[in-house]
TrEMBL record:
Keywords annotated in UniProt: Oxidoreductase
InterPro entries listed in its UniProt record: NAD(P)-bd_dom_sf (IPR036291), Sc_DH/Rdtase_CS (IPR020904), SDR_fam (IPR002347)
Similarity remark: Belongs to the short-chain dehydrogenases/reductases (SDR) family.
Name of the protein: SDR family oxidoreductase
Entry-linked SUPFAM superfamilies: NAD(P)-binding Rossmann-fold domains
CDD domains associated with the record: SDR_c
Length: 251
């Protein structure tokens, strides 16, 4: 038996990278998982990797569209009766992100829209469903850049700092509804989103050397942290930011 048997989970951004690793691990532990992605074929690929059609549901939804988010949650409830768990992961590192001197309005809007508004809308509608079935647990995806800054990505740093605040605000708002809210804060994780940077061997070696744990992070590292925060084992943990960065930011 898995640790999440009989639980219903939603994973946004579940079509690749950390979201895919999270969806697969939650399913491995017994949860039924709704894999949500802006691109349906990516969600379907993850659902196929889970392999059990009774425990994986692929759903297309754009997290910045409240109508699509509301319908996504409603579809999960229609299919499985309730929602217990959420990994609120969908986000972007915008290809045109830049320093505050150079960033354009479109990049600001798209970065804050997906990374902040998107997490707020998904949490809003999922928490409403959770409250109707007795509670649940939410894990957002922030970043080690919620605590420190990096040059040239003002939009991303701002958006992830916002998720740290949102996590605490939701933990307070949702505690009366028996819903715990936490966030994971990954450092550099090798995914499709970071593949461009990962192609620079010199940068990667410098980054690897800057970590106390001398390797680059993998999606499975973050998925394991997400699992812990969603488990009953973490039943006394809410409003916390769990850093998964190889010891980078403490130096």
């Amino acid at each position: 038996m898995g640790k999440l048997d009989c639980k219903i989970a939603i994973v946004t951004g579940g079509g690749s990278g950390i979201g895919r690793a999270s969806a697969e691990l939650l399913a491995k532990e017994g949860a039924k998982v709704a894999v949500v992605d802006k691109y349906l074929h990516k969600a379907q690929e993850t659902a196929a990797l889970i392999g059990d059609t009774d425990r994986a549901l692929a759903i297309q939804a754009d997290v910045v569209n409240e109508t699509e988010v509301s319908e996504m949650v409603a579809q999960v409830v229609r299919e499985w009766g309730q929602v217990d768990l959420l990994h609120n992961h969908a986000g972007i590192l915008h290809p045109h992100d830049a320093s505050i001197l150079e960033i354009d309005e479109k990049t600001i809007d798209e970065t804050l829209g997906i990374n902040v508004k998107g997490q707020m809308l998904v949490a809003k509608h999922t928490a409403r469903a959770m409250s109707k079935s007795g509670g649940g647990a939410i894990v957002g995806t922030a970043s080690d850049l919620s605590f420190i800054a990096l040059a040239g990505v003002a939009g991303y740093v701002t958006s992830k700092a916002a998720i740290a605040g949102l996590t605490r605000a939701m933990a307070v708002d949702l505690a009366p509804h028996n819903i715990r809210v936490n966030a994971v804060c990954p450092g550099f994780i090798y995914t499709g989103m970071t593949a461009g940077l990962a192609g620079n061997a010199e940068v990667m070696e410098s980054m690897r050397e800057s970590y106390l744990i001398k390797r680059l992070g993998q999606p499975s590292d973050v998925a394991s942290a997400v699992l812990y925060l969603l488990l009953p084992d973490a039943g006394f943990v809410t409003g916390s930011l769990l850093v998964v960065d190889g010891g980078h930011i403490i130096q």
